[in-house]
Design a protein that fits this description.
By secondary structure, the chain is of the alpha+beta class. It has two helices and four strands. Strands 3-2-1-4 form a four-stranded antiparallel beta sheet, covered by helices on one side. Helix 1 (about 30-40) packs across helix 2. The protein is globular and about 30 Å long.
Length: about 90
């Protein structure tokens, strides 16, 4: 099961997003913003900085979903994925 959890800030508010096998959860306003951003990026390559790039269905794929989170969040304060799973969260 692939997943990541990102915490950070958007507009000065503390927010979080969890992606798990193509499903997004988090605080409702942030989920809505992320879904809206994904729609505006349809047809654009996302995720190449994390290994793979996609042009559509961005929220179904971990790499492009992470790229969207990095774009949406003003600051990413922590990031944990299915590979790190420890208390030492990576920050991008």
């Amino acid at each position: 099961m692939a997943h990541f959890l990102a915490t950070g800030t958007v507009g000065g508010a503390d927010v979080w997003i969890r992606w798990e096998d193509g499903k997004i959860t988090g605080d409702a306003p942030t989920v809505d913003l992320l879904k809206g951003l994904a729609k505006t990026k349809k047809g654009h390559r996302l995720g190449h900085e994390f290994g793979l790039s996609r042009r559509r269905a961005h929220l179904r794929h971990m790499e492009s979903a992470l790229a969207l989170v990095n774009e949406l969040f003003d600051e990413v304060t922590s990031y944990t994925d299915s590979e790190t799973e420890d208390e030492e969260a990576r920050v991008y």
